[in-house]
Amino acid sequence: MTLPLPRTPVDCTLVGNSPALLLTATLLARRGRRVMHFGDTATDLPWLFGGPVWDRLCRGLDLQLPVRPRPLQVITPRTRLEWHGDQPLSDELHRELPDDMSLILDWVNQLREQGEWLQRRLARRPSPLLGWRPRLAFSLGLRLTPAARHLLKPVEHCLPEALSPEARQVLRTLLEGLALAPLAQLSTAEAALLLDTLEAGEVDGEALGSALRQRLQQFHGRTAPLDAMQAIERVGSLWRITVKEGAPIGSTWLVTDNPAFLPDLTPHPTPRPRVWRLQPGQDRPQPMQERVVLAGTPTLRLLSSKDTPWDLRAVAPHGTADLDFSRRLGELLPFGALHVEAVSELCSSSPLRRGLVPANGLPLHPSPGLLQLDGTCQLPRLAGLGELLAIEGILRFLDGKS
């Protein structure tokens, strides 16, 4: 049930469809903020979810939702491996890479343990890992811990030297697909956190969305479909949100997960992760798993579900033709005509970049009162964990403005 739109100004209006934004709205309402949320049912979660940071963030919301690992298929020209599939990883490796099985298992298990240690360390931090000051302090803490100094090194320098080229490509594809970043940009700490959160698993998106909307209403927050909103503009010290029915809403703060909702934003020139939608026609066959990472330049990440069309993400250099993706995916999923439709560019906001406040790492528009919640911008190589830390950044920032 959608509650009536508020007639008096609210503290914060949140616009967007991501579960991270809905979770932020619920947590703000839990803190006593007057909240208005515009968004549709969000069932697509970030790739990685769960762990100590998730537990700390959701403490007090009484969310009794199971977190489970989701199957992930890693495909290279010579191998097909499934993480959390029907067979144990050791059996998958024994079939595809028998000579490298022990080395890969030892390396992955060691990195997972280090990622779990890092998660606990992040969960104990009094402030989020956003901005150069908290990151510098966190890095110095690792540098002063002898057993953790290697975590600051590039992960490609920490791969076992005895690995075969095929095994290296598998690990490269896995990490690049999770992080949507070249392996050369990943630190060992980031790789460890990615593998740990991959093991921790995810919450069911539909169950999470339903539970959060119920909690938002219990905490007297308001929610409405995205198409109930007609326009957003800055008027004096408030944001004015024009709606189809009822009086306009005034809001002190505006938080969005998509700069496309704001008319004055222009594309950012730096290559960022992009989203494509694949339209295979009426009969939409499924891959062997819902989640696939595909080796190549760039590494592609493919997501499908029963409710949404194919979703494809990649770090695409300028000039990359969508037809290249069609060819590669046609080899992977040979099901007749395949159309790759560019949907949007992630993190494509330049005014939000120019207004960035380095002390806290939150993208701020030159006009006051606008925040962007986007973990792929603020912590781009940590996937769903980056989203959780970005939520904490928003909450701490707004708590300081009380």
Please describe what this structure looks like.
- The chain has 402 residues and is of the alpha/beta class.
- The chain folds into three domains: 10-66 and 203-266 and 349-399, FAD/NAD(P)-binding domain, CATH 3.50.50; 71-200, no CATH class; 273-345.
- The protein has twelve helices and 16 strands.
- The chain has helices at 19-30, 52-57, 89-96, 101-123, 132-143, 165-179, 188-200, 205-218, 322-332, 351-354, 375-378, 383-399, and strands spanning 10-15, 35-38, 67-68, 72-75, 80-83, 202-203, 222-224, 229-235, 238-243, 249-256, 273-279, 291-294, 300-303, 310-315, 339-345, 370-372.
- Strands 1, 2, 7, 8, 9, 10 and 16 form a seven-stranded mixed beta sheet that branches.
- Helix 1 (19-30) packs parallel to helix 12 (383-399), helix 3 runs antiparallel to helix 4 (101-123) and helix 4 (101-123) packs across helix 7 (188-200).
- It is globular.
- The two termini are 29 Å apart.
